[in-house]
Amino acid sequence: KEKNNMFISRVLISILFIATLASCGGGSGGSGSSGGSGSSSNESADGYWEGYSTESDGSSYQIDFLSSNGKYIAFDSDFETIISGSLSISRDKLTSTNSKSYDGSTGDLVFDGIEVDGVVNSKSKIIADMVQSEYDIKSEISLDYNALWEDKISYSDLSGSWDFLDENGDYNNSLQVDSRGNFSSEYDGCTTSGRVTIPNNMQSIVSIEFNITGDDTCYLGNYTGLGLLNDGVLIMIGTNNQYAVGALGIKSDQNY
């Protein structure tokens, strides 16, 4: 039986969020200002970044990159690949060890052991190499900061009733988020409980942690991840050592 849950494996469904961006006022754009949430001596990678990944054969594709508090999630424009890991920054040097790559259509882990090495300029530019030595995979990412995602958000924007897409593309899954970001949902034999937090209320990025329980049709396990909150639309992507799963919801009182 195919796996099923509010957090579905087909993170491709989150493409619909990108389409929703335009109607909600989001989009691409950069900023040359300095700053970020790092210490005074270190640059910061926190924020929403957009750019391109260029492979060793010269081919390139668009990539989106979310980062907050040392965690990042990157994905291509078709959600065929999701990469997730932890970031370390010393001055302007950005590194990551043992990042993981997932199949965006199934959510399954493809491989780990990805090393990231590059430079970051707060709220401006990221240039880095991504290398997986075992499979001889190397790419270079070049990202610009998207200042349009610096909208101020609060827990009042998160709290309330949300309707999430199911595997058929219908908004049939609902859950309540309380005033502290806690949530719980039961859908098709799977129970998801966790919390959404706001690491920086001047950016539209949220942090998430949740647990999925149920039978073997569920994507069982503990997950951590990141998401975006904008004008009554919430996208969440969580990963662990086996899966990457995503959810796209709209607040129940929103009309699109």
Characterise the protein shown here:
Helices cover 5% and strands 53% of the residues. The protein contains 2 helices and 17 strands. The protein has helices at residues 15-24, 155-158; strands at 47-55, 60-68, 71-76, 81-86, 88-90, 93-103, 109-121, 125-132, 137-145, 160-165, 171-177, 182-187, 190-197, 205-214, 221-230, 233-239, 244-251. β2 (60-68) and β3 form a beta hairpin. The chain is globular, with a radius of gyration of 17 Å. Mean pLDDT is 84; it is low at 9-39.
Taking Cα atoms only, what radius of gyration do you get, to the nearest Å? 17 Å
Strand proportion: over 45%
Instruction: Please report the total strand number as a whole number.
Output: 17
Structural class: mainly beta
The overall pLDDT average reads 84
Low-confidence stretches: 9-39
Give the overall silhouette: globular
Count of alpha and pi helical runs: 2
Strand ordering within the main sheet: 1-2-3-4-6-7-8-9
Order of helices and strands: HEEEEEEEEEHEEEEEEEE
Percent range of helical residues: under 10%
Cα-to-Cα separation, first versus last residue: 33 Å
| Sheet with the most strands, sense and barrel status | 8 strands, antiparallel, barrel
